[in-house]
Design brief:
Number of helices: 45
Radius of gyration: 41 Å
Strand content: 5-15%
Number of strands: 12
Structural class: mainly alpha
Largest sheet: 5 strands, mixed
Length: 992
């Protein structure tokens, strides 16, 4: 007799995790009495997810067979294992209550998981199978009891593992093998049942009927749950036409399939195991339950949908005729891996995943482990889509299981190691949650508990957390992380692009590679092949990823204007970045970065050459906001910070020039990718130039002007398009240099000013992206002094200036140096450029100069109509027209006092100085010519003013302006029409 022991108090039971303390105390006392072990001894080593259920379950079994329970509980290790098992699974507790003899210490303490051979042998032995026929009297019950005995051993080993998440793969495989063994034994029962009925076929005919049971889904992938439908497909045939014809064999096999399903899921004394679900067969539940191999293949060739091939990805023979099963897999696998060639395959898989989510009841969404956002399906669909898209050309990723497939995708370079590691761990956690939930009652559930007690029990069962709150945090974190990664990988544009590739372009190893490159637009296929070989040769991970990227990127390069240059530039950038971890990962995983990079490099040499020097700029492609201009204030702050970090002018201005190049590249990338409009581009280019000049002036002045002469003022005035804040790519920076001695010795001030100008030109020289400070608009032009005092400017403009110099001042705007001096110059300029009246002779002189410019400044041999700056109806016409109106009416109309051409044009319309229709035609011509100049610089990397006549180059310019491919003639016609109409307006308004 057990001795009474009160040391296990109610508070002690509470500490052990019991909830119903009084009942638990009574149950523990009863168990003590039945087993002969005292309460302290029984409680020793008690670790149970649900202690109340554990003690109730053991008491129930002990009431049936106290000796069997006592034998287990006497062994400390077995007792601990029993507490774990009964606390994790009420259903297995009920099984042992029905069959107490199955509760054995050796089974509970088994350290290894049973393998497929052992499981099959045990279940066939349970039904006394002989040559495929079951001989046991109550074979169905025997099979179900043996299956649950095996299941309890798997669960015991699972619960005792050091790391439940690490054990997931092995446990899931063992569960799948147990299901396959049960199907094999169930088929033996079916053969005996069909033979005994005498209605379908003789024993010989049944023996000659070949039936293969193909596992699908988790069963096929060997990643089954504790309680899940087992998805199957039945394939049949005849082993001997002389014994049974194929048609009759199909009829017999259909009866065998139904009897097998009944043996496992029909209502009997021992509860069913699980449902055998054949809904994934051709035509689903409306189709024949069993088909021949030929019938299956005919269906897959003609009628199957994309999702059916995705389902076949995990197909594996489970039971029945092994050779027929192998034949089936061999026949369907090529169809699986070519299914991604179907039109809209990727999009159809993506839509199917979305439909699965949409059909979840709204109340269940936050609790769904399997189907909900951030659940198992997100991981599985992502992995399967990556496999199906890339598996056609890479046999190394043709795997079934999710975890092994993740490893294969990493090895193949299709997914990053960090992403795969995170996905793998998240998958294990989700599967562990699912396993423990199903193990509790052996029910088919995928929903997290909705109450705190259920969450606490699950937290203890999984050992993932100590409390319900802790488990909830883990669940929320995992769902969020899975969803984020699923969204990024599942919807990556590269998948659709790879799937859309013609089969012959998926690899680059065939002898026809050169001709294919030529066919898609490469002008130097041999050179392209050399670059491809340099990028993809070797066994490094970098080369592996390049091999996967290259077929798609070549297609995208070929869509650009100059695919040959695009590929060369890509190679150089790749080599500059070396083994930088983020580069190729971003191209592979990012939402469109690879396509944007190919578009940039094959459309713009200006961008490509700068990216070779600033390869880290590739990272901007992953974030559209990074392609937006940063603004003058941010750039000025950075430039000032640069100057504080460098002690020498040389180092400081080298960094400032690098800042300029970087921001010019950012703006160019944004312009090519349509992230930046023409007005924003002009403003950004102007601000970049202003900040660069301001930083240079600060540094040079500090270097040249000694402290005792600091009173001297020096300023820079922007002129031309720079003054109008209308810079384009390749525009010069027209400027005037001005100073005021402000009390210091004039000779010394003049020397300082000259040295400042020289220093600016020296330190702003940039061989990669030239910045020329052009002072040709100064008084007396190139014959005049490069820098003057404010008094000298005043004297000159009031006594000697010509009409064109007053006209030039219309766009004068101070941009650097002394604010006071800029204000004085602006006041001077206003008095010249906005006179109270302009003489008739002055207007005639302006018109005469305009006519002379048209005749003298056009380069020889150039078609005047194609010159974007000086040609009829182009920039010069519009700007001279606007400037004449400003000179004539600026004094009277304040809105005309602007350095911006387009703002002045708008003001002229508002002041009734020009009809709105005429102004619109001038605006259209000015904007188009400005865009064309920038586009030509972006395309070629060179500053050009003449519209190209070569079709390929003109087509490239058109693409940058948003024209479709091969629209060079359309662009040319648009340009000539727009400028022709603008010229008519100009001649009417300017010459009268």
């Amino acid at each position: 007799m057990a001795r009474p022991d009160a040391s296990i108090s109610l508070s002690a039971l509470a500490r052990l995790g019991f909830v119903e303390l009084t009942s638990a105390s009574a149950d523990l006392t009863e168990l003590s009495e039945l087993s002969g072990l005292d309460r302290v001894q029984l409680a020793d080593g008690m670790v149970a997810a649900d202690p109340d259920a554990a003690v109730r379950g053991l008491v129930a079994v002990a009431r049936r067979d106290a000796a069997q329970v006592t034998a287990v509980l006497t062994d400390p290790a077995a007792r601990e294992a029993a507490w774990r098992l009964f606390g994790a699974s009420r259903a297995l507790g009920s099984f042992f209550e029905r069959h107490p003899s199955r509760l054995r210490a050796d089974a509970l303490l088994r350290a290894d998981l049973p393998d497929a051979a052992e499981l099959t042998d045990r279940m066939l032995a349970a039904v006394d199978a002989d040559e495929g026929f079951a001989r046991a009297a109550d074979a169905i019950t025997a099979l179900r009891v043996e299956y649950r005995s095996c299941l309890s051993e798997i669960a015991a080993a699972d619960l005792s593992s050091e790391s439940a998440t690490v054990a997931i793969a092995g446990v899931s495989a063992a569960l799948a093998d147990a299901a396959a063994a049960a199907l094999e034994a169930g088929l033996a029962i079916a053969r005996t049942a069909v033979a005994g009925s005498g209605r379908v076929g003789t024993r010989d005919e049944i023996a000659a009927t070949r039936l293969a049971i193909i596992g699908m889904g988790k069963a096929g992938a060997r990643e089954l749950n504790y309680l899940s439908d087992v998805d199957v497909i039945f394939v049949a045939g005849t082993a001997d036409d002389g014994v049974v014809s194929e048609a009759r064999a199909i009829d017999i096999a259909t009866r065998l399939a139904r009897e097998t399903m009944t043996a496992l899921s029909g209502v009997e004394i021992e509860p069913p195991l699980w449902e055998v679900d054949a809904a994934l067969r051709p035509e689903g539940k409306q189709g024949a339950l069993v088909r021949s191999l030929a019938s299956h293949l005919a269906y897959y060739d003609r009628w199957a949908k994309s999702w059916e091939f995705q389902a076949l990805l995990k197909a594996r023979p489970l039971a029945g005729d092994a050779d027929l099963g192998a034949d089936y897999i061999d026949a369907v696998q090529p169809k699986v891996w070519t299914s991604a060639e179907r039109s809209d395959f990727v999009e159809s898989v993506q839509r199917m995943r979305e439909r699965v989510t949409d059909h979840i009841p709204a109340d269940d969404v936050p609790y769904q482990i399997k189907l909900g956002p951030g659940g198992l399906r997100d991981i599985e669909f992502t992995v399967q889509l990556l496999q199906l898209v890339h598996g056609l050309s890479d046999e190394g990723i043709r795997t079934r299981g999710t975890l092994e497939s993740l490893d294969a995708l990493v090895e193949g370079g299709y997914i990053g190691r960090a992403e795969a590691s995170a996905f793998g761990e998240q998958y294990r956690i989700l599967r562990l949650l699912e396993h423990r939930l199903q193990l509790h009652d052996l029910t088919r559930t995928h929903l997290m508990p909705r109450d705190d007690e259920g969450m606490r029990r699950l937290a203890r069962a999984t050992a993932l957390a100590d409390s319900a709150t802790g488990l909830q945090e883990i669940w929320d974190d995992v769902r969020r992380a899975v969803r984020d990664q699923h969204t990024r990988l599942f919807y990556r544009p590269l998948l659709s692009a790879v799937a859309a590739l013609p089969a012959e372009e998926r690899t680059l190893s065939t002898a026809q590679a050169g001709s294919r490159l030529a066919a898609i637009g490469f002008r130097d296929p041999a050179g392209a092949l050399r670059h491809i070989a340099a990028l993809t040769s070797g066994l490094s991970r970098k080369a592996t990823i390049q091999k996967h990227l290259m077929p798609v990127m070549l297609r995208w390069f070929a869509d650009g204007t100059d695919p040959d240059y695009g590929l060369i530039a890509f190679r150089r950038i790749s080599e500059r970045l070396g083994d930088t971890h983020w580069f190729l990962r971003m191209l592979r995983d990012s939402s469109g970065a690879a396509e944007r990079l190919t578009r940039l490099l094959s459309s713009s040499r200006y961008v490509g050459e700068l990216m070779e020097w600033i390869p880290e700029s590739v990272a901007w492609l992953d974030t559209p906001a990074a392609l937006r201009p940063r603004g003058g204030a941010a750039l000025d702050e950075e430039a000032r910070a640069i100057q504080t970090r460098h002690s020498t002018i040389k180092d400081a201005l080298r960094a400032v020039r690098a800042l300029r190049r970087r921001e010019l590249l950012r703006t160019a990338m944004g312009a090519v990718l349509d992230q930046v409009g023409v007005d924003e581009m002009a403003r950004a280019l102007t601000e970049i130039t202003e900040v660069t000049i301001q930083a240079a002036l600060r540094a040079v002045r500090r270097e040249i002007v000694p402290p005792e002469d600091d009173a001297m003022d020096f300023s820079i005035i922007a002129m031309g398009r720079f003054g109008g804040a209308e810079l384009g790519f390749g525009s010069d920076a027209d400027v005037l240099f001005i100073y005021d001695p402000n009390g210091i010795d004039p000779q010394r001030a003049q020397q300082h000013a000259a040295k400042i100008v020289a220093g600016l030109r020296e330190h702003l020289t940039d061989q990669r992206v030239p910045l020329e400070l052009d002072a040709d608009l100064r008084p007396e032009g190139r014959n005049g002094p490069i820098v003057r005092t404010i008094e000298a400017y005043t004297q000159y403009y009031r006594r000697w200036s010509l009409s064109w110099e007053a006209q030039a001042l219309l766009r004068a705007r101070g941009i650097a140096g002394s604010v006071k001096l800029i204000a004085r110059f602006t006041e001077l300029a206003d008095s010249i450029r906005y006179p109270e009246s302009v003489s008739l002779q002055g207007v005639r002189e302006i018109k005469r100069i305009k006519a002379r410019v048209e005749g003298e400044r056009l380069p020889q041999g150039v078609d005047p109509r194609r010159h974007l700056k000086l040609g009829p109806g182009t920039l010069s016409d519009v700007e001279w027209m606007v400037q004449v109106l400003q000179l004539q009416h600026g004094h009277r109309v304040p809105d005309l006092r602007t350095t911006s051409t387009l703002q002045a044009l708008d003001a002229a319309v508002l002041a009734d100085l020009m009809p709105a229709d005429d102004a619109e035609r001038l605006r259209e011509a000015w904007v188009l010519a400005s865009r064309l100049r920038s586009a030509m610089t972006l395309l070629t990397g060179q500053t050009k003013d003449v519209l190209p006549s070569e079709i390929r180059e003109l087509d490239g310019v058109g693409r940058l302006l948003g024209y479709p491919d091969r629209a060079a003639t359309v662009l040319e016609e648009d340009y000539l029409r727009v400028t022709r109409r603008a010229r008519r307006v100009f001649e009417k308004q300017f010459y009268g």
